[in-house]
Amino acid sequence: MAQPLIKITNIKRDFILGSETIYVLKGIDLEINKGEYVALMGPSGSGKSTLMNLLGCLDTPTSGTYILNGKDVSQMHDDELAEIRNKEIGFVFQTFNLMPRTSALDNVALPMVYAGYPKSERNIRATEVLTQVNLADRMDHKPNELSGGQRQRVAIARALVNNPSIILADEPTGNLDSKTSEEIMGLFDVIHKNGNTIILVTHEEDIAAHAHRIIRLRDGMVEKDEQVK
């Protein structure tokens, strides 16, 4: 049996506010296999953003274990987590998070700068993924010269550039109109068919419908975990 790509066991996350402790995640068990397409859903306050931050190694749990690609990341320090994030995880955010004064090509190549690749290699790979998201003719444009949908395509290309184990997308269509949202979700479908593992955080049912598995959180627990395709 192949090991799951993600295995989290009894993950809890508490936040201390003054004299009060807020219990956000209350003991979550979850396995996600390589090549899955998963949507994380739940109302505000259900813990989905906290869980996404843990899955993305942007935060560490209060207790419990998180094994990512065979490595226990739940006990890692910030610099080790930064390295895992850069190698293993491609992020796509609702607000695109692009560098405003930098071309699409340089925005996409940025994770490779941190990973220590030489410029010639960075440019070849960044050109490759921009072509994959249908932006070969926009490589020299800065974000303010692109539409919202094009900016999100740049962000998706940047997420793909280091060949990560997981693409983590947080409300990736939240700032887009419905037509552009469908185009972006169509692109995620293609990326998934190419073998990438995708974890999508959304509160919209029609966006979640693109995934093959929907995990619903409520009050810091998994309420429902179902295969939908």
Features:
229 residues; alpha/beta; six-stranded mixed beta sheet; four-stranded antiparallel beta sheet
What does this structure look like?
The chain is of the alpha/beta class and about 230 residues long. Helices cover about 35% and strands about 30% of the residues. The protein contains seven helices and ten strands. Strands 6-7-8-3-9-10 form a six-stranded mixed β-sheet, sandwiched between helices. A four-stranded antiparallel β-sheet has the order 2-1-4-5, covered by helices on one side. About 40% of the residues are buried. The model has no long low-confidence stretch (mean pLDDT about 95).
Bin the strand percentage. 25-35%
Largest sheet: 6 strands, mixed
Proportion of helical residues: 25-40%
Radius of gyration: 18 Å
SSE string, helices as H and strands as E: EEEHEEHEHHHEHEHEE
What class would the helix/strand composition place it in? alpha/beta
Q: List unreliable stretches of 5+ residues.
A: none
- End-to-end gap: 22 Å
Number of strands: 10
Strand order of the largest sheet: 6-7-8-3-9-10
* Shape by Cα distribution: globular
User: How confident is the prediction overall: mean pLDDT?
Assistant: 93
- Count the DSSP helices: 7
What are the SSEs and their pairings?
Elements: E1 6-17, E2 20-32, E3 37-41, H1 48-55, E4 63-68, E5 71-72, H2 78-88, E6 89-93, H3 104-114, H4 119-132, H5 148-160, E7 166-170, H6 178-193, E8 197-201, H7 205-208, E9 213-218, E10 221-227
Parallel strand pairs: 3-8, 3-9, 6-7, 7-8
Antiparallel strand pairs: 1-2, 1-4, 4-5, 9-10
Helix pairs in contact: 3-4, 3-5, 4-5, 5-6
